[in-house]
């Protein structure tokens, strides 16, 4: 791909200078000139009123009409069940498939996982590819990429969706590179144009300050990873049936450069998975210092809860961004969310509205969090949290 300025067409209007998000265009002798900050995004070419800036994408020899069907890259949990993020993607993939009158397939890879095909069918898959092999017992980049790439090259789906999970992010990126196609990571909304069959992939950009909708016009499959908990679960019907295709594979363990020697679970409260937790205790800027966050941990321990945070604490460097809840963090769906010292900014609330019950603790009775909370405690976290923890301990007779 290359970007060039045709000097004879450039009229020096500077529209491109303002259109460029990277300050990559300067005016030299009243002519647009690209500098090294250019990332070939093409914003200037779209904006140029005279066609002087040309984005040369190179010739694509892909016949996109050869590709059909929507695929979901399935995930299997360590307990051997299909992951809920896969169910979510089946629901979303099925909706998109109906719009373009095609079918939805799910690929499940693992060891001794044939039974998971029934789960995929129950959630709405039309076809399930089951790849069962001991080398696929736990996720590793190489064998999973190889299996998926071979299947995609053989069957040519037009869209491939993966969860924006640890596995999905890794696998989708590697696959896209292997297949030489584009991939939009971390989507929060998908739409499809029934005329062009183009997938409109929307994801937060520039630190969440705007939403970008991305199209992959030239290559197939169109690939996207989708943030868990953004699409909602489809209904499960155990009487639904799907065509199940068992895919035989030969994988030489010796050809895989990574070996899993031991799986060590991080049982710390901070490691409990936010996106799957039934109870989450969330902390915000209402805490005086980092040490005081132990009050959250103590309550979480009593409740068996995961701990998450507002972006304010991530920005302060007190906690990891992996524990941020909200629009630019994790979207959570717990049964109970306890917001402690969190004001209830719209970007935080965007991540918690799927909670069944929200309890807010805030010393300001007018804090916006009380507008979305089902129960509220007006008080200081330094007093309310230890009291709650003690009350739970007392109930348990500890
Ligand atoms: C593009 C963009 C994306 C963003 N994405 C996210 C996101 O994903 N997640 C997110 O959380 N934010 C996000 N933000 C930031 C968001 O706008 C807020 O700034 C942030 O949520 C505020 O965090 P907070 O509620 O902890 O802090 P504050 O807004 O400062 O609120 C602190 C609250 O604590 C209360 N308080 C103070 N002391 C005590 C005490 N001792 N006891 C009890 N209560 C007390 C105060 O009354 C106040 O209500 C984003 C912002 C932008 C611009």
Question: Any key phrases for this structure?
Answer:
single chain, 398 residues, alpha/beta, Rossmann fold, 3 domains, 5-stranded parallel beta sheet, 11 helices, globular, binds flavin-adenine dinucleotide
Describe this structure as you would to a colleague.
By secondary structure, the chain is an alpha/beta fold. It has 3 domains: 2-56, Alpha-Beta Plaits (2-Layer Sandwich), CATH 3.30.70; 64-255, HUPs (Rossmann fold), CATH 3.40.50; 269-395, 3-Layer(aba) Sandwich (Rossmann fold), CATH 3.40.50.1220. The protein has helices at residues 15-19, 43-47, 84-99, 116-123, 141-155, 166-179, 294-303, 311-315, 346-349, 369-372, 381-395, and strands spanning 2-5, 25-28, 31-34, 53-56, 70-73, 104-110, 127-132, 159-163, 183-187, 189-193, 198-205, 210-214, 222-226, 243-246, 279-283, 306-309, 336-340, 357-362, 375-378. The termini are far apart. The site of flavin-adenine dinucleotide has 30 residues, from helix 8, helix 9, strand 18 and helix 11. The site of flavin-adenine dinucleotide (FAD) has 30 residues, from helix 8, helix 9, strand 18 and helix 11.
